[in-house]
């Protein structure tokens, strides 16, 4: 599919207690651009709809506005929030004065959305909500991104984190930074790295038979 853009090397992906031998593409500038273009082509309408919604409701102080944003983001980005949790989560976001934190790019914003007792910890949603409002500050955490980072960590040892460290958002962000530095991807912004991690991580999962 990608012709010469894919240069293969062996790696291993943990699936439960089992490690499955996989082949990973070499991370290159050309690969990043190809994956970004493919993401944009597949998700053009979704991204434009989200952009217009955020433009219409840029702030997060009115519960009704936040509720609409949570519903739409959960559906379009598949963040897997239980239906029963959507309203309390929206009320939580509207009540914690999160806009200043988002403007600052503070990781505290992600933590305050993620830690919302008695609800589940929706880290993927929290990172996507924050990235939606400030994509230059918040990399998106999800299964695909986590899988991609860990697979390349196992293969190329670009950093020293353990797999469980990626469940902590600050450590996940540090891993993304290390990934970008190791492979010489400084010309790309976080949104572009999100697209790379999402697509390559998804391809790894497909090859492993877990997606």
Report on this structure:
This protein has 2 domains: 3-43 and 140-208, no CATH class; 56-133. It has 9 helices and 2 strands; from the N terminus they run ββααααααααα. The protein has helices at residues 29-56, 63-76, 83-95, 99-104, 108-114, 123-133, 143-156, 169-182, 190-208; strands at 8-15, 18-25. A hairpin with a 2-residue loop joins β1 and β2 (18-25). α7 packs across α8 (169-182). The longest helix is centred in the first third of the chain and has 28 residues, at 29-56. The relative contact order is 0.14.
Keywords:
211 residues, globular, 2 domains, two-stranded antiparallel sheet, disordered N terminus, mainly alpha, 60% helix, 2 strands
Topology:
Elements: E1 8-15, E2 18-25, H1 29-56, H2 63-76, H3 83-95, H4 99-104, H5 108-114, H6 123-133, H7 143-156, H8 169-182, H9 190-208
Antiparallel strand pairs: 1-2
Helix pairs in contact: 1-2, 1-9, 2-3, 5-6, 7-8, 7-9
Write down the domain tally.
Answer: 2
User: Percent range for helical residues?
Assistant: 55-70%
How many individual helices?
Answer: 9
Low-confidence stretches: 1-20
Tally the beta strands. Answer: 2
Order of secondary-structure elements: EEHHHHHHHHH
- Which class of secondary structure composition applies to the elements? mainly alpha
Brief characterization of the structure:
The chain has nine helices and two strands; from the N terminus they run ββααααααααα. The protein has helices at residues 29-56, 63-76, 83-95, 99-104, 108-114, 123-133, 143-156, 169-182, 190-208, and strands at residues 8-15, 18-25. The protein folds into two domains: 3-43 and 140-208, no CATH class; 56-133.
